[in-house]
Amino acid sequence: MNLPGQNTIQTRDELIYLLTEAAALEHSLTCQYLFAALSLKRDTSEGLTDEQMNDVANWERFILMVARQEMEHLGLVNNLLTAIGASPHLLHDNFPYPTQLYANVMALECFSEQTLRRFICFERPANVRPEDAYCMLTPVPPPDGLGGPTPVNIKSVGELYEIISSGFQQLTANGVNLFIGPPKAQVTPQELMTYFPRVGTTGGVWDIWLSPITDYESAQHAIELIVEQGEGSTVGGTLSHYATFVRILKGLQSWQAKDPNFQPARPVVPNPALYVESGEHDRTLITNEDARLVLDLFNGAYETMLLMLIRFFANTDEGPTGLGEMAALAFSPWMTMVIRPLSEVLTSLPAFAAGGPQRAGPTFEIYHDLHFLPHERAAWQVIFERMREMAAYALQISQRPNVPERMKSVAESLRLIAVRFQGDMKLT
């Protein structure tokens, strides 16, 4: 391995390391963008005018678009990992946690001017000075016990991908047989069912368009796509992530100038958590009983989705039915009918047992060491049993008097998904 600070890649292991870092980065950005978008108010009953609500709804739509494209980036990075013989990586540290990036901290915070400034720094093009993109030039020191060694010093997302791109170039030039992963393991638009053309964007209807990676050219094309969509792009564009967040920030500032009391987001607590260990001062322990139950269900649903995605990206002996079912569950109903509504239920519930205006929120916590489930039939059975248990748990929660009526719909969605999965996979 290279010494820290030497920004070159000389071995396959070093390239795998940095791609794993990129996967964790893309996953963490996705969670942060989803958290901010889902903290926004839902209708005029929450103190907004019709005109304000129109802008807020548009901000949510565009942030969710960026989040979906981050999911695409995560998928492309996992295709890159698979292509060079590594396993997919779908884990991240629990929030908040420090980074080398100029934004310094990965954190779950509700939609605000401060949050947008941090997002702008994350997506800063290479031709924009860090200080002009609201970046924090003084690093935040990691807490004791965190922040392990890294083979390179990285200050921006674009710099990370520049080093990864150079690594592919250097290793290929050195004659390394990089692309040893089986082509059948690549996730393509056919598996995702997003192979129809996009209108006005650069991918499918979910803004997710994964290309197979089997050689140097396809690897560089994937990296270029990630950069062009906003992460370190020198060109940017009106739909780049950077330009999107800058535009939303200007819109927010315009409303704040007209109305100093304008509050587009619910008062969701920063970095909510189901569990907080001694010494963790930056996490907000959720103590309201109803919110804790919903949060426990959310964490179980999030982990189950990750289990499906790990199996999907590391598939071995799945046939078309198995892959199609995983894609149909993990990318569409599970995200839109389970993860999103549970997040919105959480932001409507009090964060604390004593009540008050502050709201709970999704935590994206990972407390189990999630591994690839290696055996096809056993993997499907484990996932099905989790679905069935969560459906029963959601139904129990929905019967509590202070839980929003929407929980009944979530419980029914979980039940129907489990029934479909059981039937299609012929499980007991």
Largest sheet, spatial ordering of strands: 1-2
Number of strands: 4
**CATH architecture of the largest domain, please?**
Up-down Bundle
What overall form do the CA principal axes indicate? globular
Characterize the structure shown.
With 428 residues, the chain is mainly alpha-helical. 50% of the residues lie in helices and 2% in strands. It contains twelve helices and four strands; from the N terminus they run ααββαααααββααααα. It has a two-stranded antiparallel ribbon with strand order 1-2. It has a two-stranded parallel ribbon with strand order 3-4. The protein is globular and about 65 Å long.
Strand-helix topology:
Elements: H1 12-38, H2 50-83, E1 97-98, E2 105-106, H3 113-122, H4 157-173, H5 189-192, H6 216-228, H7 241-258, E3 272-273, E4 284-285, H8 289-313, H9 320-330, H10 333-346, H11 376-398, H12 406-425
Parallel strand pairs: 3-4
Antiparallel strand pairs: 1-2
